[in-house]
Amino acid sequence: MDDWFFDLPVLAMAAIIIGLTVATTALVWVLVTRLVASERGRFGSGVSPGLLPVLGIVFAFLAGFIAVGVWGELDHARTAVTAEAGAVRDAALLSSPFDADTQSRLRDLLRQHVQHAATVEWPAMATQSQSLAPPVPLVDALHLTLGLVPANDGQRVAQQKVTEALLAALEARRERILISQGGVNAVKWAGLIVIAIIALVGIAFVHAETPGAAAVAMTLFAIGVALSLIMIASHNRPFSGELSIRPDFLLQAIPAAPS
Length: 259
What we know:
There is one protein chain. By secondary structure, the chain is an all-alpha fold. It is 74% helix and 0% strand. Helix 2 runs antiparallel to helix 8 and helix 5 packs antiparallel against helix 6.
């Protein structure tokens, strides 16, 4: 699926999925009903009802497998953003033993990193185009910290802790960018949709002698298919769409200028 689809509001996304599911279900019902009514389609009326549970299990297994991966990546993305925000905040707070000029320069670099991440990196992650190139403000902050000459034990400990916090922020940023490059690939989408269509065809053939029952059974299954697709699609990309992760936690970590 294209980027524009995952940027849609959930209701618009649901409307498209439901519309396509309804159209596909109706098309399968019409084709199978007409095929069975013809002489060439008589073979289909002998399809065993025992086929349907198997197809349903296969669809449920595949949908569950995909959903677990999607929601797992969403949780990992939230953890990465939270970790980055915490590391930025720690770096700012732990810089207090340094002189006012060093504190001001370090916190200004941290503010630049956060603002760049929120205004530039987040839109790029939504389109999966953000690179792993190190962020200049965060790298400059690391170089500034490593280049300090501690005047006492307090500054020496602070230098070590700030360095660790900056490295943690860099690692968390790398992780969130890598996660933004993921999502359900075309093969998984195709497999899920094909299994759903096969199941609909099977239901239609099993209930071929009673078109009304076939329509009811196919409708119930189609509702489950549509809901599954909506749930997966709306959470497919952690940084895209209405339910995406926002940079709010990171923005809250912007350090204030030292007084």
